[in-house]
Amino acid sequence: MSTPRNLLITGGAGFIGSHVVRRFVTKYPKYRIIILDALTYAGNLENLRDIENAPNYTFVKADICDADAVAKVFTDFAIDGVIHLAAESHVDRSITDPLSFVRTNVFGTVTLLNVAKEAWKGRFEGKRFYHVSTDEVYGSLHDDSLFVETTPYDPQSPYSASKAASDHFVRAYGNTYKLPFVVSNCSNNYGSHHFPEKLIPLMINNIRNNKPLPVYGKGENVRDWLWVEDHASAIDTIFHTGVNGETYNIGGHNEWKNIDLVHLLCGIMDRKLGRAEGESAKLITYVTDRAGHDLRYAIDASKIERELGWRPSITFEVGLERTVDWYLANTEWLDHVTSGAYRSYYDAQYGR
Ligand code: NAD
Ligand code: TYD
User: Fold this and answer.
1) Strand 188-190 relative to strand 222-227: parallel, antiparallel, unpaired?
2) CB under 6 Å to ligand 1: residues?
3) Which domains are seen in the chain, by residue range?
C-alpha cells in the first residue's frame, strides 16, 4: 500500500483523465494533485471546470516529451506518485498519422519514466508510477476466449503497437532500475466528456444532428464497454492497493457487437428526443471498414476482483442512459469541441 501525497496525473484534461482527476481531487483533499497536459485536440480544460478552483488542484500545460518541463514539475511539487494517462488514443488517427503515436505514447512515456527514475533515484520507498494502458495490446480475439494478464501481446494497429511498446518500457524500467510501477489494461470506456470521434459519443452527436451513423464494415466487431467512472474507481483501487510490478486487467463483462450497440443507442435517443420508434436507426450507414479492424476485445477482470475487491458499480443500461442524458444536457460542450479542427478531421475520415 502506497500513500503518496503529491500526485502527478498526466493527460488529466482528456476523457478518462478528467474523471480520474475529479475523483482524486474530491476524494483526497489532503493530496496535492498536479495535472500535466499538453492540451491537444483531445484535451479540454472545460472537462475540469467544476474542480479547477479546488485548493488541492494545480494545472500545468506541458508536453510529456519535454524532459525539462516534466523534471521541473517533479522538482517544484516534490512528486511522489504518477498516474500516467497522457496519450494519443484514437485508432483511426493512428492509421493516418502513426508517428505522432510513437512520439507521445512511446517517446513521451519513456521521457516520463526517465524523469521519475532520476527524481526518485535511490529513494523509491513509497513512490509509485502507475501506467494506464489498454486491452488492445493483446490483439484481436477470433474465438470466445478472454484476455487475461498473461495473454501474450499481439498489437494490430499503430495505436495498440505504441501502447504495447510503452507498457514494455514501464516493465523494463521496473526490472532494470527497480522503479516501482503498476500497469492496468482496460477495455473500451464510455461516459461523459468523451471526445466525439469515438463510437458512442460520435453516434450520440450524429443522432442528435440527424447525420448519418457510420458503421464500419458489417458492424460485427465486438467491444467490452466499461463506464468511465468505474475505470476511475479501478485506477483509485489499483493506485492505493495494487502490488508493485503487477498488471491488472479492467473490464465491464459487457460485450456488444457495434451494430447492436448502435441500435440500442438509437432506441434510447428516439425516446429522449421524442422521435417515433425506429426513426434514428434510419440514419445507420454502413461505410468502408477500418484497415486491420480488430474483431473482438473481451477482458477477464477476475484478478482485480479477486485480489483487490473491485468490480463495476453499474450496469450498461444505467450507464448508457446517464451518458446520453449528459450529452443532451451539455450540447454546448459538444458544439464547442466539434467546431474548428474537428470538422476537418471529420471530413477527412468520413467524407463530406
Ligand atoms: P484522450 O485522447 O481523451 O485524452 C488524452 C489526453 O492526453 C488529452 O488531454 C491530451 O491533451 C493529452 N496529451 C496527448 N498528448 C500529450 C502529450 N504529448 N503531452 C501531454 N499531454 C498529452 O484519451 P483517453 O481516452 O482519456 O485515454 C487516456 C488513457 O487511457 C490513454 O493512455 C489510453 O491509451 C488509455 N485507455 C483508454 C481507453 C478508452 O476507451 N478511451 C481504454 C483503455 C485505456
Ligand atoms: P472506437 O470508439 O474508435 O474504439 P476502439 O477502436 O479503440 O475500440 O471504436 C469502437 C468500435 O466502433 C470499433 O470496432 C470501430 C467502430 N466504429 C464504427 O463502426 N464507426 C465509427 O465511426 C467509429 C469511430 C468506430
Assistant:
1) parallel
2) 10-11, 13-17, 37-40, 42-43, 63-65, 85-89, 104, 108, 132, 134, 163, 186, 188-189, 195
3) 6-191+225-253+293-315 (3.40.50.720)
